[in-house]
């Protein structure tokens, strides 16, 4: 069932569409918002506000446009609530244990690569970072990303291209030479 069908189902009084939509987009929207706020708990609260806004305002959404609408609303709310606080470390990371069959060296390498990627993404121009995140990590089309960022498709294409170039250079400086 499409996103729009679930949404229409909810608008018609069948509340079973809401949990499905939240399951499809809740985690991804939370991570997207967390990219702005660097506070996962606040990001979770804003994700719920995105769905609350959608359900209380009940905007008309064109076919194929619900996903972009959710990200656009999430971006708007995150920018309004943006916080500069950044935690020095996460207590959650201290409690994580690798699976028994996973070699500790691989876990360390993987975490280090993720840390370097996160660090390098943070050094990118904000527009490049957001365009890359939406298209590469969240799988939005260039058209959807353009709608979310209030840009045109050509601008998104350029931002993704330049963002990838910049990211490759930053990763090379950090010792990662095989970045795609």
TrEMBL record:
In its UniProt entry, what is this protein called?
A: RNA polymerase sigma factor
Q: Spell out the family assignment given in the record's similarity comment.
A: Belongs to the sigma-70 factor family. ECF subfamily.
Q: Name one GO molecular function term.
A: sigma factor activity
Instruction: List residues of the RNA polymerase sigma factor 70 region 4 type domain.
Output: 115-167
Cross-referenced InterPro entries, in alphabetical order? RNA_pol_sigma-70-like (IPR039425), RNA_pol_sigma-70_dom (IPR014284), RNA_pol_sigma70_r2 (IPR007627), RNA_pol_sigma70_r4_t2 (IPR013249), RNA_pol_sigma_r2 (IPR013325), RNA_pol_sigma_r3/r4-like (IPR013324), WH-like_DNA-bd_sf (IPR036388)
This protein's species is: Lachnoclostridium phocaeense
Question: What's any GO biological process attached to this entry?
Answer: DNA-templated transcription initiation
Q: What's one Pfam family here?
A: Sigma70_r2
């Amino acid at each position: 069932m499409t996103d729009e069908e679930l949404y229409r189902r909810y608008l018609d009084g069948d509340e079973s569409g809401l949990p499905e939509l939240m399951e499809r987009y809740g985690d991804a929207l939370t991570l997207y918002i967390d990219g702005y706020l660097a506070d996962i708990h606040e990001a979770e609260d804003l994700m719920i506000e995105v769905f609350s806004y959608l359900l209380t305002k009940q905007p008309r959404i064109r076919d194929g446009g619900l996903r972009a609408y959710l990200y656009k609303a999430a971006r708007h709310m995150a920018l309004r609530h943006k916080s500069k606080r950044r935690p020095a470390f996460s207590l959650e990371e201290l409690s994580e244990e690798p699976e028994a069959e996973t070699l500790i060296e691989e876990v360390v390498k993987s975490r280090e690569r993720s840390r370097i990627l996160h660090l390098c993404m943070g050094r990118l121009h904000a527009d490049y970072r957001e365009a890359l995140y939406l298209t590469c990590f969240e799988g939005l089309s260039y058209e959807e990303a353009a709608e979310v960022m209030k840009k045109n498709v050509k601008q998104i294409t350029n931002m993704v291209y330049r963002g990838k170039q910049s990211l490759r250079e930053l990763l090379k400086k950090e010792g990662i030479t095989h970045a795609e």
